[in-house]
Design a protein that fits this description.
five-stranded mixed beta sheet, binds protoporphyrin IX containing FE
Length: 556
């Protein structure tokens, strides 16, 4: 409904959209409006070109938080302040649900934990969280190591053949293999092979992303699923995945073992043949557990836990390569703590600098960059940062984008926010101009795996916050540390060609459209052109991975 305009000029509405615009103004008011929020006026180019969160950042610098944004018939409130984020995610969580996100994801994830309505969510969350217990995570660290072995082999081949590698693709594959094995004991083997099941996973992910960027639910149009080729393909792929999941669920149910949570938590995972989360859920919840419920839970984990971690690894390698001093520090620590061994949980805790690197990557490239909510009961937002509107009203039914990207990249909440500076999490940061915000206090995350949202009083939200916070946070964090440690120990990377000064090169911000890597919004922040790199074996370092034991069966 919006017509493209030259960069920097206000967006224009087409004739048909003009009607919608006046409808919006009747419902929400024009500026200054019923809800008191400024209305963003900008160019469509700012939110098109696949980097919507960058456009939202430009509007944030001129409008503060919250501001209102109209897309044709749709209107969103964009929130970019830690005090308001804390209000929505933690203090008034019961007033919000997942809104359009749930509508978009329902055909794929069903009533899985991410899109689940609050009532379903309460029951599901209680059943799933105990699955991520300490003994299991400990064992998973070993599994991450095993799943990285094929990646090391494939990088070795590329190094020997002097072949350029797309590291984004490689990290996607290893993350998929890890999630398949840990969540439902399935070998995708995607680092080494391609199969219809693997392409079905990618197709489902692509469709989920496409839907989240599409203003109208075209998949709900009568007969569209039978007629539109892209939907027919998607439904076919979803069936392939559903069949695999059903078979695995039946298998797990047929071999159900124990039901006592304490017994499950005390398991000696070294001797367990199938340590997957599915096994835990079936053992815990009984053989009569609903297959559809299990299917939704598993599909949600598969999608939530795969691309997110792959993106962290991709941007981590990108930033470390751009910052050779940081790369040297990370490598020195890996050499010192892990060497040729497969990393353990204790190693991950000891590699503090590597953990700071992962934290910094999650700050600069939050996955997802926007959280989506819909207001269920009228609400009023606190002001937060000086200059924001006082007492912004949120009407019931209003859709909200909570821009984690804006909060993570704002100089109001972080010193030099565009600089890759892992050590920032060891320093205090305060800003009296943000009313009711406690700032960042490094003491508040001492002894923890990563800097939590409470250490930054909601100015750091890599895994969200409040009761709908990510259940896989520690899993993903450990997976990122193990993978980076194993790869950086053995290989050296460089960008294929250094572009000269004055042109857009690797040193520029990847949001630039001509950047050789580039940024693109999906559910996560992807590269626009892949992370193509030259890879070399690290001189004087063995490629052999010394095992820790652990009894995990990894095929292929
Ligand atoms: C929720 C980020 C890995 C499972 C979330 C949320 C974020 C997030 C921001 C909150 C969404 C919201 O409030 O709307 C990440 C990142 C990851 C990651 C950055 C990797 C670096 C994982 C993994 C799993 C997982 C590995 C599972 C194995 C989930 C689930 C939820 C969730 C089930 C929904 C929780 C609920 O609503 O109760 N994740 N996640 N995530 N994540 Fe993750």
């Amino acid at each position: 409904f919006l017509q493209p305009t030259p960069q920097g000029t206000p967006c224009q509405f087409s004739d048909s959209a003009q009607i919608f615009k006046s409808n919006i103004e009747q419902i929400y008011g024009s500026y200054p409006s019923y809800d008191l929020c400024p209305m963003a006026e900008g160019a469509l180019d700012d939110i098109a070109e696949g980097t919507m969160f960058i456009g939202l950042q430009q509007y944030f610098s001129s409008n503060g938080s919250p501001y209102k944004l109209c897309f044709g018939p749709k209107s969103f409130l964009v929130v970019s302040d830690p005090v308001q984020a804390r209000h929505v995610l933690r203090e008034n969580n019961d007033k919000y649900d997942k809104g359009i996100l749930a509508e978009i994801l329902e055909p794929i994830m069903g009533k899985g934990l991410i899109p689940a309505d609050p009532e379903t969510w309460k029951v599901r969350r209680k059943q799933i969280v105990p699955g991520f217990h300490k003994a299991w995570l400990n064992h998973m660290v070993g599994l991450f190591g095993y799943c990285n072995v094929p990646l090391i082999r494939s990088l070795e081949e590329a190094a020997e053949a002097n072949k350029e590698v797309d590291m984004e693709e490689k990290f996607c594959s290893v993350a998929l293999d890890i999630i398949g094995k840990s969540v439902f004991n399935y070998d995708f083997g995607s680092v080494t092979t391609s199969s219809p099941v693997v392409s079905a996973v990618y197709s489902a992910l692509l469709e989920a992303e496409h839907r989240s960027m599409t203003p109208a639910p075209y998949w709900d149009i009568p007969l569209a699923n039978q007629v539109v080729p892209r939907l027919r393909k998607f439904n076919g792929d979803l069936k392939i995945l559903d069949d695999v999941l059903t078979e695995l669920i039946e298998l797990a149910k047929g071999s159900r073992q124990v039901e006592d949570i304490e017994e499950l938590e005390a398991r000696n995972y070294g001797s367990v043949k199938d340590p997957s989360l599915l096994r835990f859920l079936v053992d815990m919840r009984g053989a009569d557990i609903d297959n559809k419920q299990l299917r939704d839970d598993l599909m949600t984990m598969l999608i939530a836990g795969h691309e997110t971690t792959a993106a962290v690894l991709t941007w981590g390698l990108f930033e470390l390569t751009r910052n050779p001093d940081m790369m040297s520090r990370a490598r020195a620590e890996i050499d010192d703590v892990v060497g040729d061994r497969m990393p353990t949980m204790e190693d991950c805790m000891e590699m503090k600098f590597l953990r700071l690197v992962v934290a910094e990557v999650l700050r600069m490239y939050p996955e997802p960059p926007l959280l989506i909510r819909r207001c269920r009961t009228d609400d009023v937002l606190p002001r937060g940062r000086e200059g924001n509107v006082e007492g912004a009203r949120v009407k019931r039914g209003m859709d909200m984008f909570l821009s984690v990207y804006n909060i993570h990249r704002s100089p109001d909440f972080w010193e030099e926010p565009d600089k890759f500076d892992p050590d920032r999490f060891t320093r205090t940061f305060e800003n009296p101009k943000v009313e009711g915000w406690a700032g960042f206090d490094p003491k508040k995350w001492e002894g923890r795996l990563y800097p939590t949202e409470t250490a930054a009083d909601f100015a750091y939200l890599p895994f969200g916050g409040g009761s709908r916070k990510c259940v896989g946070d520690e899993f993903a964090y450990l997976e990122s540390c193990v993978t980076l440690a194993m790869v950086l120990r053995r290989f050296e990377f460089d960008f294929p060609e250094r572009l000269g000064k004055g042109e857009v090169g690797y040193d520029e911000h990847p949001k630039d459209l001509n950047h050789p890597v580039g940024m693109r919004t999906g559910a996560t922040i992807h590269t626009r052109q892949g992370l193509k790199m030259n890879v070399k074996k690290r001189p004087g370092v063995s490629l052999v991975v010394v095992e820790q034991g652990g009894g995990i069966e990894v095929k292929g």
